[in-house]
Amino acid sequence: MKARDDGKAYAQDVTLEELGDFLGMHDLNKAGCQYCGGKEWDLPAHEDKPVIIKLPTPSNHPDGINAFFMSCANCGRMETFLTQTVVSRLMGWD
Ligand SMILES: [Zn+2]
Q1: Domain count, the chain
Q2: Does the pTM exceed 0.85?
Q3: pLDDT for 47-69, tens place per residue?
Q4: Which residues are near ligand 1, the ion (C-beta closer than 5 Å)?
Q5: For residue 48, what are the domain limits?
Q6: In this structure, is residue 1 part of a structural domain?
Q7: Does residue 12 lie in a domain region?
Q8: For the segment 22-40, what is each residue's pLDDT rounded down to a tens digit?
Q9: Gap from CA of 83 to ligand 1 centroid (Å)
């Protein structure tokens, strides 16, 4: 992924393919579901981009934190990944 003209990288710019790359980087897509052992994960998308969810964290981040998620195709268990971390890894910032 690329930074925008302001030099920042935005979670909204991450593509499904890039999120797939991130998951593959860490073999997360090969990890079985902890609940049912299912091996197939769905990456929910909206307008061809991964869906970003906002988790409320009232005591430290009033605006909450953003996460990508994948869900087990069998039981629906969701695994969440902080958008901040995904973007940093994709940008090679660590
Ligand atoms: Zn499952």
Answers
A1: 1
A2: yes
A3: 999 999 999 998 888 889 999 99
A4: 33, 35-36, 38, 72, 74-75, 77
A5: 17-77+84-91
A6: no
A7: no
A8: 999 888 878 899 999 999 9
A9: 22
